[in-house]
Predict the 3D structure of the following.
Amino acid sequence: MKQSKTRNFCIIAHIDHGESTLADRLIELTGTMKSEKIGEQIMDSMDLERERGITIKAKAIRLLYKAKDDITYELNLIDTPGHVDFSYEVSRTLAACEGAILVIDATQGIQAQTISNVYFAMDHNLEVIPVINKIDLPNSEPERVLEEIESVLGYKSEEVLHISAKTGQGVSELLETIVNKIPPPKGDINLPLRALIFDSHYDSYMGVVAYISVTDGSIRKGDKLRLMGQGTELEVVSIGYFNPKFCPTDVLVAGDIGYIATGLKSVGECRVGDTVTSLIDGATEPLIGYKTAKPVVFTGIYTTQPEDHGQLREAIEKLSLNDASFSFEPENSPVLGNGFRCGFLGLLHMDIISERLEREFDLSLIVTVPGVKLIVTRTDGKQLMVVNPSDLPEPTEVQLIEEPWVKISVITPSSFIGPIMDLVTQSEGIYKHTEYIGQSHSPDTLGQRVRLEYEIPLRLMLTTFYDQLKSRSRGYASLDHEVVGYRETRLIKLDIMVNGVIVDAFSRVVPPDKAHEIGKSMVEKLKDVIPTQLFKVPLQASVGSRIVARADIAARRKDVLAKCYGGDITRKRKLLEKQKEGKKKMRNIGKVEVPKEAFMNVLKLEQ
Amino acid sequence: MLPVNRSMSDIIALYIHIPFCLRKCKYCSFISYRSRESDFPSYIKALKKELSLRACVCNIGSVYFGGGTPSLLSPEQLSEILSSVKKHYLVANNAEITIEANPGTVNAAYLAAIKKVGINRLSLGIQSFNDTELTMLGRIHNAAEARDAVADARSAGFDNLNVDLIYGLPGQTIEEWRDSLEEAIQLSPEHISQYALTLEPEEPLFKEIKAGKLPDISLDVTASQYQMAENILQNHGYIHYEISNWSKPGKECRHNLVYWQGAEYLGLGVAAHSYIERRRTGNTDDIDRYTASLSQNVLPLLIVDEKINFDLEIAESIILSLRLCRGINIKDFEKQFGIDIMKNYTKRIEELREYELIEFDEGYMRLTSKGRLLGNEVFWRFLPDRV
Ligand SMILES: Nc1nc2c(ncn2[C@@H]2O[C@H](COP(=O)(O)OP(=O)(O)OP(=O)(O)O)[C@@H](O)[C@H]2O)c(=O)[nH]1
Ligand code: SF4
Ligand SMILES: [Mg+2]
């Protein structure tokens, strides 16, 4: 029976603890690929993933491993993104497996997302193999980390493996442990088909390709299928497994992990977390409850040159075929013209999508200040959702505003509790809970490591919270967060005027008592990021008709001329051409040339 | 390669680059090597070879020895080069022959000697009459040597003298700048060039500012210094004829006018640029490659080689002639290119007038005094949309 020789597992970790590097070693040690061909983090195949050194999309690979018992096992490995923005997708991936390797960095110990990942794994009843990674590093502290794992996560020391994903030390033992400890898939090939979609992407030749884990039954090319959650019907165009490229095969059966090409046009029709069954005589119960990841962070996206709007529309439509978790709706700004209000899973997700739009579609974009979705109840009792600050009704028409809150968990050496507590208080947050988890790197100075729980409005997480947390903890603190629901709040709209024109793209919702302070730091920041113009430019922050802060950009009186001598006129002209080109990356607002970065950087307040 | 047959009426300017200095100034971005006198003969040999390979039947109206520090060459070496020029080209009798000379490298005897070999215009790289500033810039000379150089030039009989000055130095006040300028005026040179200090990241002075050892350059002060200089020079009878250049009436630098008028020039030596028959070329900036090629009778590698098409020619012509204070003669321009500036650039011109960067007067379009400080803002607007 094939299933008994199959092991399906994923690798989970806090960001950068070494998931993808461990995947490389497993691929190499099983002989699936030669190390020269693997390079570094082979699973991170997107340009953006390679450049940033992070995993953005989950990926799978089938490994054949001949174990000590002389049996060849089929190991299906799924590499998942470590960043919290993608934790919803990670939780779906876990449902496709029976086991998980939990990677913990020996120099850092347990971090915030280590814990949330363990909870996910527990939710799905996975067999967890805890490993301490990077033991090759001179500053690694495996003993201390082991203590933490025992006391906080409750694993026994003999269960925990010590490895280096980089050198390969301990990885053979890990392979044996995978085979011995992780149970084979439990499904039944004779039951009606049930397969879980744990990722999908759009391919211009094959249409939407769904990555699936087959629990019961089997799939062949040409089968007619139905998605139980969304109701989408489809026909299997082609079928296969990953090595890690697509590798066509005839059939996927219970216990297999692979892909089906569906011919569908958009990943929105074939979302992660849905269960695939046969169109006729299908299963009745989905594998897991199907729900979609909801965007929580919203921003306006415009082209720097208004005439490029059509290209932006096309680009967004195309990209959304490949990413079902970002939303978009056309909107119109009096200053920026036509654009889109887009919703994302978090700031990293926002950053990645806007970068992909610029890069893959050669666009120059303005991305406005990100915000949350507010629920506003008007005095006439009508409720509306507000994702664009400009749509906030006049204060006199507002009965109630509610905004999303998150529960955050911070792991830090105890000596930083004070500064972190201050930050949370300043960020309108509330304290919930403290838990001691172990000794710090240098026990004398930094004290014990603690896990702190707070609740704060999500709105505050969108500005400088993370940067400040890092700087107040000298880089030690790690953060995880999770939306907990909507709560009543008091907010008003703060506008910024550039040269007398209200620039809606800079508008934000803020608590009334913070309007002056935030307005002041915004105009000061803009003063730095908007270059001098040929005339004096007043920058004003206002609430309604009341000016709450002002700063002026003095007129530019002199160019910086490039040095050129003799007849080197070509160089001079090239510099002028560059200057002219640069204007395309600016947006003209009330005659003021505003660089596109200003729209984002206005948030990066200095404190 | 140059065409050999050119009409006799074509007058071209000849530039010769001498890439040697005693030591590098802290703001230098010119192609110049720390002097190894032993390199001079091989370089001169290469120059002469380039001259012969690029020989043509054309009239040379001006010769300009630029650098570097051309005054490091001996009168004999200069004479050798000039003879070679005369051998391969027709040099007009009244040709303007300029040499850039640095105080600290010249004395009365030397200057008299180079005057004798035919050099009739001297451009002195004085930069400042303030010793603190000269040290900050890393110049090899002090103020006293600068004064001596002017006196020596006069006694050697030079009656066409330029003084180069630099303003907009880190921390330099308007008054300090005025003092240097007034001292220069006292010596009544026929010509004064003044340049705002511009720094590039790899230069030592730039690094000193970044490291906080020197104050940042204030563009505001620099602008005021320029405007003050404009007034003072005008009061002393100097005519402002180009953004950075002033002269006594009739003493404009003929060689540099060639660049601004879009006329042809031939540049010889390392990193020298030429513009002949709508083609702009620039020699390699590597002295060893330069001499190596020429020792094999091969013209040096070009690091710039560009055909100037009609659109570019128009743009460059506008940009360069706007550098001249009298501006562009709109009728002449239309005669030359068949283009009505007013119609062709209506929107741009409107914008620039609104910002008070250009003005129109008696058939000319020119930069305003504000526009002279913000030239780039004007120039880029006349570039063609796609090149
Ligand atoms: N010295 C050493 N470095 C390691 C080891 N494992 C991973 N690294 C390094 O740690 C960094 C992060 O590794 P990745 O494998 O990309 O981490 P990840 O967990 O996949 O990151 P995300 O996918 O972004 O969550 C890389 O620079 C690796 O080279 C190890 O065992 N020893
Ligand atoms: S004298 Fe001129 S070329 Fe020589 S180092 Fe100084 S600035 Fe550069
Ligand atoms: Mg990874």
